[in-house]
Amino acid sequence: MRIPRAVVPALVLAHAVGVAPCAAHGAGGQEVTASLAVDARSGARGCLSRADLVARIARRSSRIRVVGEGGSAVPALRAAVEAAPSGAVAVSLSFAWPGGARSERRLSARSCAEAADAVALVIVLALDPSAAAAPGAPRLAPPAAPVSSGPGPVGGAPAPSPDTPPPVTPAPGPTAPPPVAGEPVPPSASASASTSGAAPASPLPPASEAEAEAEAERAPDEQEAAPTPIPAMSRFWVGLGGRAVRGPAPRQLLGLGLVVAWELERASVWSPLVQVIGSYYARAASGATGGTATFGLDLVTLQLCPLRVGDGLIGVRLCAAASGGRLVARGSDTFNPRSGSPALITAGGAALLAVTPHPRIELAASVEPAAALISHQFTFDPNIFYAVPRLIWTFGIAVAVKFP
User: Fold this and answer.
1) CB atoms closer than 10 angstroms to residue 191
2) Is the dihedral of CA 57, 63, 67, 70 positive or negative?
3) Cα–Cα distance list, 342 to 68, 252, 269, 300, 381 (Å)
């Protein structure tokens, strides 16, 4: 007889989790009580819920009852869930047994549904191993002992010939009372059982071919069940957003920004981002004594953001930034109108707040303080009506699409 190959990995997985401390609880149709807690981390909120796990466990086994806090008398289970923006899910499932023993298993899956199904399967294998076998799956059982069925042949032995005298049956002696459960059977009872009319049960056969095959396949199956870390993913962004800047002109300038970025997306704080923003600010006029000045700004900004703090849904980045471009200024309503486009160069930082409602979509808001490295003054002769301050503030919002 051969055990179906699909059953072997499940048995090996149960062994790796540590079924031994609680394997007897689900035997004999007895109910098993366990407490379960789910801890969602790193963007896993809503990915794996306790109610969903309880429902999946109930579909696999009717003998497992899940409670909130069962104290030290029942096994305590805790599932710590982490999710990456790419959608991959990692679960650390820990068992605290009543006797003080502890075990842990790490699982990884491509989606929340696959992770929930895998966690439910491991819990059922640990608490109720008898429920793991699929209906109708072949099971190995020792051969039944031969049973006497009256005067006919016993255990398939040939019937005696008519000329053979009947065997002499010894007179029954006093019947010993049945042993009490939990007490050892006295030697006399064993001896009387061996001399009774019933044939003794045959010893268990040696390891079968199916058991040898399962042992040979144990190592590859354990390697397949080993957890795999969530891989890093290189992604590109393209986005569009609104920009506002204070400092280069007497009035706040409003504009649009085109965002191009590259990110190494990882389930870690170290998730570097390189972002380039090309901004165009609409021209705005400001009146002054002696004339009217119109200002505009064309700017390119480079941001380097090595760290990302937060889960897969909301994250915060602190960046170093540098900008360079031209500040467009034109005078009018004056006796000597002039125009110019001096360079504007800044260095500073940026704080980015990102929300990822979908693995391919990101919404971002930024505050970007910077210092002007070149000072500029604008005059209507002989009066200076505006000087660019040393500190310049930029604010931005954007929506970006990620590839792949």
Assistant:
1) 10
2) negative
3) 68, 18, 40, 15, 18
Amino acid identity, position 194: S
7-135+218-225 against 233-403: fold identical:
no
Compute CA 331 distance to the chain's CA centroid, rounded to the nearest angstrom.
Answer: 61
Rounded to two decimals, the pTM is 0.50
Q: How far apart are the first and last CA of the chain?
A: 49
Please tell me the distance from the alpha carbon of residue 205 to that of residue 141, in angstroms, as a whole number.
10
Q: pLDDT category, 133, cuts 50, 70, 90? A: low
Per the omega criterion (within 30 degrees of 0), is the bond before 404 cis?
Answer: yes
Whether the CB-CB separation of 256 and 243 falls below 8 Å is answered with: yes
Q: Which CATH number fits domain 233-403: 3.30.450.40, 2.20.140.10, 2.40.160.20, 1.25.40.10?
A: 2.40.160.20
CATH fold, domain 7-135+218-225, is Rossmann fold (3.40.50)
- The three-class DSSP label of residue 5 is coil
Alpha carbons 385 and 287: distance in angstroms, whole number = 10
Q: In terms of Cα–Cα distance, which of 14, 74, 73, 66 is closest to 37?
A: 66
Instruction: Tell me which long-range contacts 383-386 makes (C-beta under 8 A, separation of at least 24).
Output: 383/288, 383/289, 383/290, 385/250, 385/288, 385/289, 385/290, 385/293, 386/249, 386/250, 386/286, 386/288, 386/293
Two structure tokens written together for 99:
């006797």
Strands 76-83 and 89-96: antiparallel
Residue type, 216: A
Phi-psi region of 87 (alpha: psi -120 to 50; beta: other; left: phi over 0): left
| In the chain, where the domains are located | 7-135+218-225, 233-403
Phi-psi region of 138 (alpha: psi -120 to 50; beta: other; left: phi over 0): beta
Contact present, 330 and 318 (Cβ < 8 Å): no
* Residue keyed to tokens 């006919």: 152
Question: Mean pLDDT over residues 326-351, rounded?
Answer: 92
- pLDDT tens, position by position, 71-93: 566 788 888 888 877 778 888 89
**What per-residue confidence (pLDDT) applies to 333?**
86
